[in-house]
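Inputs:
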Amino acid sequence: MGRAPANPPEDEQPPTLRRHGPTDRRVIQPVRRFKPGDAVVRVTRPKYAGFQRRGAGRIEASLTLEEPRSPWGRLWRVLVGTPIHSELEIEERLTKKKALAVFSSDALSSVAYAPQETLVVLLAAGTAALVWSLPISIAVVLLLAIVVFSYRQTIYAYPSGGGSYIVAHDNLGERPGLVASAVDQLVSAVPTLLPLRVELGVAAVALVTLANLRGIRESGSIFAAPTYLFLLAMLSTIGLGLFRLATGTLYIPPPAEIPSPVEPFTIFLLLRAFAVGSAVMTGTEAISNGIPAFKPPESRNASQTLVGMACILAAMFLGLSVLITGAGIVPHANETVISLLAHGVFGDSALYYVVQASTVLILVLAANTAYADFPRLASLLARDEYLPKQLAFRGERLAFSNGILILGVLSALLIAVFGGSTGALLPLYAVAVFAAFTLSQAGMVVHWRKVRGSGWRLKAVINGIGAAATGLVSLIAASTNFMNRELPIVAGLPIGWGSWLVLLIVPAFIWLFRSIKAHYVDAEKDTALVLTSSDGVPERPLRNVVVVPIARLNRPAVQALRYAQALSSDVTAVHVATDPKRAADIEAAWPTWGRGVPLTIVESPYRSLTRPLLQYLAELRRNEAAETVTVVLPEYVPDTWWQHLLHGQSAQFLKLSLLFTPGFVVTSVPVHPVDDDVEQALA
Amino acid sequence: MGRAPANPPEDEQPPTLRRHGPTDRRVIQPVRRFKPGDAVVRVTRPKYAGFQRRGAGRIEASLTLEEPRSPWGRLWRVLVGTPIHSELEIEERLTKKKALAVFSSDALSSVAYAPQETLVVLLAAGTAALVWSLPISIAVVLLLAIVVFSYRQTIYAYPSGGGSYIVAHDNLGERPGLVASAVDQLVSAVPTLLPLRVELGVAAVALVTLANLRGIRESGSIFAAPTYLFLLAMLSTIGLGLFRLATGTLYIPPPAEIPSPVEPFTIFLLLRAFAVGSAVMTGTEAISNGIPAFKPPESRNASQTLVGMACILAAMFLGLSVLITGAGIVPHANETVISLLAHGVFGDSALYYVVQASTVLILVLAANTAYADFPRLASLLARDEYLPKQLAFRGERLAFSNGILILGVLSALLIAVFGGSTGALLPLYAVAVFAAFTLSQAGMVVHWRKVRGSGWRLKAVINGIGAAATGLVSLIAASTNFMNRELPIVAGLPIGWGSWLVLLIVPAFIWLFRSIKAHYVDAEKDTALVLTSSDGVPERPLRNVVVVPIARLNRPAVQALRYAQALSSDVTAVHVATDPKRAADIEAAWPTWGRGVPLTIVESPYRSLTRPLLQYLAELRRNEAAETVTVVLPEYVPDTWWQHLLHGQSAQFLKLSLLFTPGFVVTSVPVHPVDDDVEQALA
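Outputs:
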């Protein structure tokens, strides 16, 4: 550059040698003395309190470090529990029994309303149409069988989690994968809305969120009792009901007033009733996403749980339909079908109330399945950089705690917005569920064609049937509920809720996923390490110049100077002089306190601080041919926040300005009001 | 400490020598070549663009650095003007003519309403009481004469600003000084409230704030025209009015309906009317605070301005009172006295409208006097550490811009809260004005007793009379308006606005002043430099250990390592491992990219980042016997704010935690998305 600085860089140093890390250094302790002159010492390693040594250059943090230190911390500890060691992850897995409780609560809860909703749809064409509820149930159970059969293959083929996102992404490409993920996430948020009032819904969400933060195993334990209670209650009701039906002792009174038909009986009506009834199939997708949550052998346990769940659902669904048709149940305006049935079977005995209470409980807990699905799916997307990486973080109980918290907040918001009304989001729900199935099964067909192996053709055919069936149901669900003008989005407008919203929501999700991914890819490219041809050649050390801006010459300033001198032998100080008198004072005291550091006075006759300083630093960097300029700022840290206001904010402005200017590094040297003890300890 | 680290501190260095600062270094430039082998060079100093050299180690920032760089900056420049060089301060001083405009607008505006308010008070005792308006005016003018005579002495005795705060603080002690300051600041905020509606009031405040940000001289120029127009209009009205009164051609119609008396005529009523009339005296205090704003000779100019203002006020006040009494004016409900008078004198001619317009204008500009007083007083208090130091800052136009902005905001808030209603705060106003006078004049009496000098007894007597008279008026104002139950503070409660509020507000101000002072004193003690006995002995250099926390091994991390190596030869790196796989990856790549720095893996089996890291750093500091641990954090600076959310916030938590822990210094090494050009420039 045609210039030779008077002070050549002095911080050039020989390439550092391989050295011991601080935990591996030797500590020499005097042990005892037999005679004067003896020096018996023990050579040990330094003690790092709160850590265990795990080999050279490796220590492990103990649980003691995680002890809560504030009242809020202690409350959190009570609510969420003691942190769990990462290596105990396997202990946190689900047994089949608990897995059934976790993954089936959503599907089971649909038994409590899906038959009723089917009847209500049919009733629009008159009571004669109600006999169709049995054929519809048979169709639903058939579909369930196809889906389960198809998904069993997926579970074995993708043992580390074969949700529709993974399978579609792997076999059909990025966009189908993201579509599958978007619809699946939609499904996770919706079921919590189903048949609850706002306060009850929000309370349930809070409860379920908290339980899930305690870890999946514990949430399984918590939710097992109510789930199995509901199962028992329903199977008893159905069993005893069928017995009474057979013996002719079942009587269920029709409603006082039977509404007259409002629409003709069409195939379209039948299909709508079928779409409503098929809400029973959600848990399937959740199980295939959650295979890693099962105890080993994961795939076998997951597959058995899936089949078990399907059998129970099929039994309950068919049983209920036989009872409904056999007893000629007509839905009432103010009593649910389950309640009517339980009344008919148990009369007004205590058992009736057990059935009712367990039904309410299962509806409250229906949200839990989403917590087994959404956070895990979000963590997969975060791993693939389609969502913020924080979502892949496992909290103190090994649960995906960020995902759980976000699902909790989203669900509570949706409940608050929709007032817990069942109808508005159901169309989205059915379309989303079956779209995810279709993509997953279609992906499996491609998978078998790629992988081949023994009997691949049969497997491909099975998944193909699954894809075709669920694809058909997707279309049925989408077309029968394309737009419901009776549920306007904005009161007065002719635009109603309906499955058409999927066409808005899914592209929005995909745009979001891809934007996030694009940023991560850019950032990775920006920060990637590339081996260049100069590799191996010892690299030129970084030319760094250290500057200490001095606002007033006090203890923080002198400490900053002393600190700066520990960083570099090429330290200069600068004072931006807005007040000539203060500048003169600093200059006069400099020989005493300046520690031999050259001081430059930058007169600022227009009384601004930041701009002359920034310009000076930029010019200094250029003139000194420095790669970086380190700005060492003395920072007095007051005791309380309001006292910050009494000290100038120029340091903060400076920091912010320099953060966005390449080539500058800002170091604050905090000086605390009372650190006499610390200083004495080190003196 | 009974231990010897394997790597002894290597940053010990010889005491640095006295060196040239960066602006004084020599730059050697090749100039020309006559023959091969010649090396003719020129030795110059480095060029610092945007600065002028002002001697050894001293440069001056040019105006070019202050050029606005954003649209907002350009707008601000247009509104406020080009910055003014500190050395041109003397050019920014006020001539007597402009000073009269600046300091008298408040007092002059009182002419527009004080006579009317006096009449309204008197009218309560019936129209017969109105004749007392002339004696009251004479009393007010007498009081004005005493105050002015007394203040003239203060102005000469305290040529650098002899407001009541300075004089009382200097002679009566801290508390009386702070009381004087508190009441003076109260006065500054109140007058803007007087007779304006909310929108007009806020607009006027904004206008006057902006004008004052352009500097006091320019605000004087801006406000001179309307002030002198009002003066001319009033003097013409009064002069012609007196002529017409003498010639018997002045007729002012009484109101259609004369209200009947509501209270008896008492000395108390008279005193209340007097207290209302004495609002005329505000400018006096403002001038004595603002002596340094006058061109030299400051004291003489200030004193002459004060006397000139007093004469004009006296003439107008007495003239108005003669006219009111002579023409028997009775105040109307919907026409001001000034308007009645102007109608009577000028009929419905254009001149009438000139009088009316100039009156509205002077009322809008009345706030301006406070801007000449409050920011300067606040700067004195800030200098003495009773208010935040930022208030002593002079902005680009040499005005106390922070004080001006705060006054603007406070005034606008008060107008918004009180809805621009005249009555509520007037009692506070009168008490505060006269309390400040009293404290100032009492202080002067003590001053003369201390200083003595020729004729000191006479001077003390004059100030004593001033103190006694203004003290009496303070008492009158306080007692006659102690509480007005017709203006309840909260509707329905029997507590009304009144001078008693001073007893709350002033102690609150003093508490605030003293708290601020106490903090500054503490901070100063904490940060004071004390010469110790070890002084002169070369101080032990600071033992600093540099640690680089590595989250992932990428370019920012390697840059941070390279930077850290420029700071110290004792650099170690640490990775808090929440994911064993990532830790293994980093360990595997370390020999290639780790630059020879020892890496410690801190396994965090409970997956928390901050706590294990903080504990490790604390233990490292203890084991290495380091005075400071410098934590060098790689920081990737994304392009947009939302991208920050996609990167972990652990670095921010860490910074905040370490800021409050003594012995740690945090350095962020910013890595920017695109700094290829910069890197190439330095390669």
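Remarks. Chain A touches chain B through 139 residues (CB under 8 Å). Confidence is low (pLDDT under 50) at residues 1-18, 675-683 of chain A.
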